[in-house]
Every structure is written in C-alpha cells, then in structure tokens.
Amino acid sequence: MTKILLTGSDGQVGQDLQQTLIPLGEIVATNRQQLDLTSPNNIRQVIQEIQPDIIVNSAAYTAVDKAESEADLAFAVNGIAPAIIAEEAKKIGAFLLHISTDYVFDGTKNTPYLETDKTHPIGVYGQTKLAGEQGIEKNGDRYVILRTAWVYGTEGKGNFVKTMLRLGKEKEQLGIVSDQVGSPTWSYDIANTITQMLTQLNLAQTREIYHFTNSGVASWYDLAVATFAEAKNMGYPLKIKQVNPITTEDYPTPAKRPHYSVLSGKKTAKLLGKNAPYWRDSLKEMLTKLYKN
Ligand SMILES: NC(=O)c1ccc[n+]([C@@H]2O[C@H](COP(=O)([O-])OP(=O)(O)OC[C@H]3O[C@@H](n4cnc5c(N)ncnc54)[C@H](OP(=O)(O)O)[C@@H]3O)[C@@H](O)[C@H]2O)c1
Known about the structure:
Strand content: 15-25%
Structural class: alpha/beta
Mean pLDDT: 97
Strand order of the largest sheet: 2-1-3-4-5-10
Number of strands: 12
CATH superfamily of the domain at 3-157 and 184-215 and 262-277: NAD(P)-binding Rossmann-like Domain
Largest sheet: 6 strands, parallel
Distance between the termini: 33 Å
Low-confidence stretches: none
Order of helices and strands: EHEHEHEHEEHEEEHEEHEHH
Helix content: 40-55%
CATH architecture of the domain at 3-157 and 184-215 and 262-277: 3-Layer(aba) Sandwich
CATH topology of the domain at 3-157 and 184-215 and 262-277: Rossmann fold
CATH class of the domain at 3-157 and 184-215 and 262-277: Alpha Beta
Bound molecules: NADP nicotinamide-adenine-dinucleotide phosphate
Radius of gyration: 19 Å
C-alpha cells in the first residue's frame, strides 16, 4: 500500500488533503508538533522513520506581512526545509509534491503567468518560497512544485473570506483593495488537484512546476462583494451595507504585493483533461460547506 507523508496537516490545504488523499493509500498526517520544519534533524528523522512513497508538503510559513519582520523563521520553513525534504525524499526514493505561490512573481505582467516565466518576488514571503523551489530543484530527484494563489478554505486558522464574514457581521461599511487582481482559490480544489495529479502523473520521471488556481480573475474587492452576496443568500447574519473599492496606497501593509497575480492553469488543465472550477462557483460551495457546519 502506498504510504503518504503529509506535512502541515492542520493547515487549510492540509486538512482538505487528509480527505482527498484517502483513496491513494495510507496517510501519515503530521502537524507542526509532529514534524517541525524549523528543525532539519526532525525532518530527516521523521522521513527516515516513516519511509513514505510520497511526501506532500503543505506546511509553510504563510503570514505574508509578518514575514517582513520574521525573515529568518520564514526562510527556515519555506526556504530551507523544502530542500531538506527533497534531499531525504531522494535518499529513500520518495516522490515529493510541494506547494508554492504566485508571490514568486512581481505582478508586472498583464497576461497569466506561465510555469516558465521569470520569477522575481517583491516581498520576503515570496523570496523564501522561491528559495524553497530552488532548493527542491537542486536537491530533489522526482517532484512537482505546484504554485497556487489566494487560498481560502473552511479549515485552518483564517483567510480573507472568513475575515470578510467576521467584519461583515460587525460593520456596515468596508473599504477593500481593488487594484490587486488574482484568482481566489478554494483549498479543497487544490487538494483534489494534487490527488488527481498524483494518480495521473508518471511519478517515476516527473520533475515539473505546475500552476493551479480556480479559473477567472477577481480583485480583493470583487471577492469581498461576492462573499457577502453569496453569504446573504444563504442567510448569514450580516450587517454590511456597502463595500467601497480602495487602492493599495489607501491600505498600506508591511509587505508589497503583486498587482497582477494571475497564474496560467493551461498546463495543469492539459494534464488533468479539465479546466479548473470557476472561482465564484467554488466560493459558493465553500460557503455552503461552512454554513452547514
Ligand atoms: N494561503 C494562501 O493564500 C496561499 C497562497 C499561495 C500559496 N499558498 C501555499 O499553499 C500551501 C498551503 O497553504 P495554506 O493556505 O494551507 O496555509 P496555512 O493554512 O497557513 O497552513 C500552513 C500550515 O503549516 C504549518 N506550519 C507553519 N510553520 C510550521 C513549521 N515550522 N513546521 C511545521 N508546520 C508548520 C502551520 O501550522 P500551525 O497551524 O501550527 O500554524 C499550518 O498548519 C503553502 O505552501 C502556502 O505557501 C498559500
């Protein structure tokens, strides 16, 4: 039976992967307490002990703004750990599926980013994630680096959609940034895509980067408006009456973010033989799931 080691099992994508990966084999799910990515010894010891066939690394330091002042920690988790995981995977002949981000790009393009496009992160988080990719490419043998973007889900500690629901209960008006665009992506769709990739790829040979997000493009403002519209339809108790579009300049944050963060999903769609679900359909499904619980 295939043995899959999952890191970051308490995260948004990690929790969804614990469900979607079930048909593929035995899952050894590890959270931060069971496998701490800041400890190279711990990483080596756990991988040697478990001897997985596949490693899915969904753990990451994901606090984009905090990373600006905690660069060493972010670098340890996002930059160094993936290289060590890749090295250990190579030693035992395991396949590595690693998750990366749209923030490896600077957002100056105006057509969807391809897997082959030049990377140029503009913040610490993106720099650390790019270092992780490069470490895997250098140390790894068989792997997929799956870049995704703008992730929200029902599980994990929090995300933009959940923040909107909380603020929408408390406030009548909100100003939300409208000059950053990307593709909001449901963590469950990422988990499903990873699972399908692991069944459809030739794991004996693959060393590739793929992009996956939900399809379509939206700004944070669009995502907020859509969240409130769908949630209201479902009967969420919301106080919000008006959402105002604001600029990035109106809402300064410690980390710079790309203005254009759209990833081309063509390569992944070709592999899986289908297009990614439209972001608004997935948002509705996620909110339905959240509302039921
Ligand atoms: N969130 C986004 O918008 C976004 C966008 C693009 C790409 N991604 C990528 O997608 C992947 C999954 O992200 P996500 O949204 O599921 O993130 P998440 O909900 O923040 O989950 C990340 C998990 O990693 C764990 N973690 C943090 N430091 C760790 C350490 N030192 N050792 C072990 N585990 C540690 C966290 O543990 P705790 O629960 O204990 O904190 C958390 O459970 C990541 O690679 C991320 O970079 C995310």
